[in-house]
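Let us walk through a complete example step by step. Step one is to write down the protein sequence. Step two is to encode the small molecule, adenosine-5'-diphosphate, as a SMILES string so that its atoms and bonds are unambiguous. Step three, shown after the inputs, is the structure prediction itself.
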Amino acid sequence: MFDNNLIIEDIATFFGVSVTDLHATPIRKLSENNIWKIEIGQRNFVLKRHFIHAPINGCKFTPFEIELNTLKVLKSKGCNVPKIIWQSDKKQSLLIEWCGNQTLDDMAQKQSNWHPIVSQAISQFCYIEEAFKKSQENLTAYVFPVNQDKKLQEILGHCRKTIFYIIQASKKEKHSTHQKRIDQCWENISNYLFSKPKNLGGLDHNSHNILINQQKVFFIDFASIGWNWQTQRLVQSFNSLGTKQDTGNFVSLINPETIETYMSISGQTKVHNDIDLHHLLFYLSIIHRILRATSQPNHPDSIRLYNAWGDLKTRLERAIHIIIKSNLSNNFEANTIRQIIADCWLR
Ligand SMILES: Nc1ncnc2c1ncn2[C@@H]1O[C@H](COP(=O)(O)OP(=O)(O)O)[C@@H](O)[C@H]1O
Ligand SMILES: [Mg+2]
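Step three: the predicted structure of the complex.
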């Protein structure tokens, strides 16, 4: 394991205080925790140590270098991301500004009046998207050379299969009744999504990477960046999974009102179809994971999923409910799939 004492000494020296003035609390209650809250008197910081000390996935830089440079660039453009206070290249560690102890995920699980914060978070999301666009030259070298088209192709494949599983599981309909319609929809959905341009942004978007501190929203975790679809990132950021929470379940913060906010801030007009389709794929992928875990309950991945999500039947019902009830666009294909699932599930 890492020797934290040494790094704590370095930080104490940096602040000109004694080691005993500095209080470190692990943020994750796991043996492999790599994030600590650091308190020095009334001031709070976060120490993030990167475990991976070598470039991965064919990237030229380590996750530490990617995060360090991305945070610097985004901060220089005025984004709400944590400021870097101190760094150790040798120990691949960053001491960054404290951004509060509430994540958007926590808020979505506990509160229902989340609209003001979500509006602010969408506004910051768009601001960061713009900052990435303006900083392409400085950031291109840090991009993960992951084939996003291939990833989307795989997601589409899993999701298509999942629709047939849902039909079969309902036992009310035969798979063959809908085969032709689903295949046609799937071809159109694929063609549509692949025709959309990708842009540069973070590759780890989720509602745990959005923090709220005294009503101010921060985006964190930029250890990987690359080219993918903005509306896919929006969907990933604004859906809460409620992982490892006793009564946790999926909560979608994407609705006609939040789409309206996104359009007015980003200045984009034709986004309903994209958001609806990525949202549909997001929940079909979740159902795919649940069904796979239920069919192989002893597999280590399945055990991990049970531990993270609890009762998978409740989770499955919520995911289907969100798909059926989402009213995000007039997209013919999304609504056809939604209708087929509703007919099988509700009858
Ligand atoms: N600047 C920060 N302020 C407050 N909490 C933070 C900060 N950075 C990270 N955290 C906490 O630590 C968690 C993990 O940090 P993150 O940078 O997302 O690491 P990972 O790459 O492991 O997901 C976050 O979800 C958040 O709860
Ligand atoms: Mg994270």
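Step four is interpretation. The longest strand covers residues 43-49.
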